[in-house]
Design goal:
Number of domains: 1
CATH class: Mainly Beta
Structural class: mainly beta
Mean pLDDT: 82
Number of helices: 1
Shape: globular
Number of strands: 9
CATH topology: Porin
Radius of gyration: 17 Å
Length: about 170
């Protein structure tokens, strides 16, 4: 629980620091977006993202329900924050940190802890004034999992990524 709090606090500090930097240089043009994404393994998610010229911070959620056996029911909220750099007029390079926490039951066993944390890099292309396509990869990911008295820590390299479509307001 303490690790989760530290990660969320870090992401909040990163966002606030970059927001204040935007205000200091006069580029405070934030746009809120609704994001639909598909990530590694076919996980579909929906969420909200705040974009500025130099920063991004977002929260998404995905879930799994196994209707055949009704023994798997999970929800995975994801929080991410990062910095953006314009490559040209409508294309951005972004990098930051991603934190996901899976809650629920897996094969009838309660998930005590299951979180992943790691950096991400992405390319974002504005297709129109309001629609943006983005793709990302996570070059490294740490995962800790504890299900029914059994725990496991893993380190993954280039194991996760995805593609998203954003509608910006």
């Amino acid at each position: 629980m303490m690790f989760r709090l530290i990660i969320i606090t870090f992401l909040l500090v990163l966002f606030l620091q970059s927001s204040f930097a935007d205000n200091a240089i006069g580029t405070n043009s934030h746009r809120l977006a609704v994001q639909g994404a598909i990530a590694t393994g076919g996980n579909l998610s929906i969420g909200l993202v705040d974009y500025s010229e130099k920063t991004e911070v977002g929260v998404t959620i995905s879930g799994t329900v196994n209707n055949a056996s009704r023994h798997t029911k999970t929800a995975t909220p994801v929080v991410f924050a990062g910095l953006r750099k314009a490559l040209c007029e409508r294309t951005y390079f972004a990098y930051g940190i991603n934190f996901a926490d899976t809650l629920g039951e897996y094969h009838g066993k309660h998930i005590d802890a299951d979180y992943t944390v790691g950096p991400y890099i992405s390319l974002e292309q504005m297709l129109t004034t309001n629609i943006m396509l983005s793709g990302w990869i996570e070059p490294y990911e740490f995962e800790y999992e504890k299900i029914h008295h059994s725990s496991l820590s893993t380190h993954n390299f280039f194991n996760a990524g995805g593609i998203a479509i954003n509608y910006l307001f």
